[in-house]
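Invent a record, attention on tokens:
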Amino acid sequence: MNNDNTMRASWKRLRRTWRLLKWVFSAALPVTSPSHENKRVLLVYDLASQPFSVGDILVLQEAALIVRHIRNLGKIDVAVVYDAQKPVVDDPAFSQIDRESFLFHLSSILPAAQVNPLLGAAFLFDSHESLESYIADNESKYYVWPTIGLYTSREYLFYHCFNELFFEYFQQYGRLPVMNSRPAAQTWARHFLEKHASGQIAGTIQLRRNPVNPARNSRYDAWLEFFRYCESTYPVKFIVICAPHEIDPVLRNLPNVIIAKDHHTSLEQDLALIETAAFHMGASSGPSTICQFNDKPYCIFGWRIDPAVFKGIKTDGHRHRFYFSNTFQNWIIEHESVDLLKSEFSFMWNEIRARNPEVSRIHPHSLPSK
């Protein structure tokens, strides 16, 4: 019996080794090979090494857009893989997710895998063996990313993306690919803003109130005072993006505030609103990641990552920005205060106004200079 078990284990390891070797072979063609034109990217999101996080999924979507461009590939397929017995990485923020509740919670992040107009197919694998078998059986169809080395090392890919893949691409092309929602989501977002912010400049605000991780929560009192100040100062409608349990009822009394969840928006719709609006401000939270990959003004507060861990970071006083970002795309380590909100919005305002000249014509006397 022991011999049989040993043989089965050896055979299982051999089959896995063969599957992984075929994965290596699938990436062996030169970048310029014409045969790559008919291949797709298979983006693997491995929940054994990557967080159960909207923001991290969006970062890897950007990585897939870069890989597609430099490899001259077609559409992007997304494969989410997890271990059925231990579906998420160890982290207090995900402590409520276990093997029984995993699929229930999965719907809260999966729409982030759809924020890609080049999306082909989406797959869900409940074991790494199933994923590896699929790749082996379809190796002629795909260029798989992350690479086999990154996949087997179980490396957290956030820093690899910003400091290696994105950095090298930016050095060569001087920009990163713009991340866009699918056309239907873009159309919905434009209609929403036309209906609820006609004649005004619409901006999105990400607020956060999570009892599991309160260190990252928004300072609601500061935001409420800031909204009241802006009511008589700026021709702006603020679209608040947050979960239903994070809504402060006082927000509903402010005429210059719209709560997205009062209109039953999905995650994909919230992301489309952030993408489509004229500017974005708010908490360091997953959905705000989408605005990092376009040119709109944004300001993120309570950023919890040391700027020193990033290559090419640009710092101007308390403001930090990525090497690929413009002057009005900043993140700030400090949490919000009323004065900080006012000063950061004032800093962005002339740029926002310049991009929305039609509102300048409608409200010629209510547009303060910086």
